Each structure stands twice: as structure tokens, then as C-alpha cells.
## 1
Amino acid sequence: MKRILPIAVTAMIAGCSLDFPVAITYGDSITEAELESFFRKHKVENHYVVALKKRSIVDVYLVTVHGYPNNLSVCEDLIAPYNKDASRSTIPGDYYCEELR
């Protein structure tokens, strides 16, 4: 009995790890690349997540849009006023939306 319990626990853990492909993040911070990689592999409520970004000196990841039936159109509605009137933003550049697939 003493040998069966550790074997059973090990088998159970090994089996569970195959069913859940979500990577575990250690620490209290992740990079933008890790965040984007996660959302490229996972949908939220069966919809693709959209990244709101800004083209400037470098591309900047600003917001993740999710929770809507059409995240891309919501993102495009958010950026329209800023791209129409550059004075609304202090940093020059264009905003754009990228669906993370």
C-alpha cells in the first residue's frame, strides 16, 4: 500500500499535465511577448482576442480587447477618434488593431 499511493499520485499528475496545455507563469510579471503568445493560443469565450497597438518609434502594445462578440470591431471603434485627430495623443503615430490568432 505504501508503494501504490506514490505511483498512483505520479500517474495522476502525469495524466493531468497532458490535458492542460496552459503554461504556468512563475513570478508576478510576464512580458508582452508572453502575453501575446498566450492569447494567440487561447480564445476568450470562443472569440479571438484583439491587441490594440500603436506604431511610433517602436510598436507599442497598449490594450487587450476581449469579452465582446466582435472584439476587432470594438477595437477599431476605440482607435478611430485618435487616428482621425492626432492632437488627441501626445505620442505621434497611428493606432491599429491586431487579432491574435
## 2
Amino acid sequence: MSAHPPLKQPTAKNKELNVVEISGVEFFIYWDKLTVEASFFLPTTATPKQIAKILDPIAEQLQYKLEVRARCEYGRYGARVWRTY
């Protein structure tokens, strides 16, 4: 028996937006659960500028404003992405 509940699968409507590829790695992001001032961490060697370039079209479509900053968290280099609007 698994200790973790299964992840909710994305709907066909939003699946393309939820799966983001950065430096050859796919990340699944629950955009609809990202409230204003909430954030998420992406463990990646991509720069904030590279990440923003990938996320900006999605943010524009969702009418979100995002801020991306380089961070070292959990002993890993990456970027934290905040929804500011």
C-alpha cells in the first residue's frame, strides 16, 4: 500500500500549460493552485532569464505576473518562481 495518494492527472484543457520543459526536464506545475504571492522551486541549472523566457508565454495566457530568482534550496541550485499578480 502506497503512503502517498496518487497525483491528480491534468485535464486535456490545461495539460499543455501544466507541463513545462526546462533544460530537457519536464516539470508539472499546478498553475490553477498558484495564488498571488505563492511560489514554487524548480531544481535546475537554467538561469532565471532562461526560465522566465519559457514561463512568460504561459503567464501571459493566464494573465499572471511572475518573478524568477536564482536560489539554493534543499542543497540544490535552482530558481524560485513567485506569482506577483
## 3
Amino acid sequence: MRVYRLEVMVIDSDALGESGIKQELENVSFPNDCLRLRLVSAESREVDWNDNHPLNMCTSWRGTFLKLFASPDERKLP
């Protein structure tokens, strides 16, 4: 499964892919057109997903997400 970094975390359990996620975000209709979303950039990583994955846990998702998208130098930090 792919995990995408936009400014929000997207777990692609339906395998929409980057273009499908972009399309869904940009085509969402908010009441009174209060928000208009445009995806400027995205990056993704492959993960071996299961229900116990740290990204699926309230206590560990943020740290796991930050490590997943850290630069190679940042990944070496304790």
C-alpha cells in the first residue's frame, strides 16, 4: 500500500494512486464553495500495511509518518 505526503496523511486503502487521490481532493464539493483544493505537490512511500501498522495507531502514527518521509540524514538521528 502507498502512503502519500501532501500536508495531510493519506492512506490509500482503495489503491486510487496519486492521480486518483488528487482527483478526489480537487473534486470534493464543500458547502457554499468555502474551500477549493489544488494539489501542488505530493510524495509517497510503499508500506507493508496491516491493521496493527504504526500509522494506524493514535499513539504512533505521527512519529512513524515523520520517519517515513524524513531525509536520509534525518533517518539516522536517534
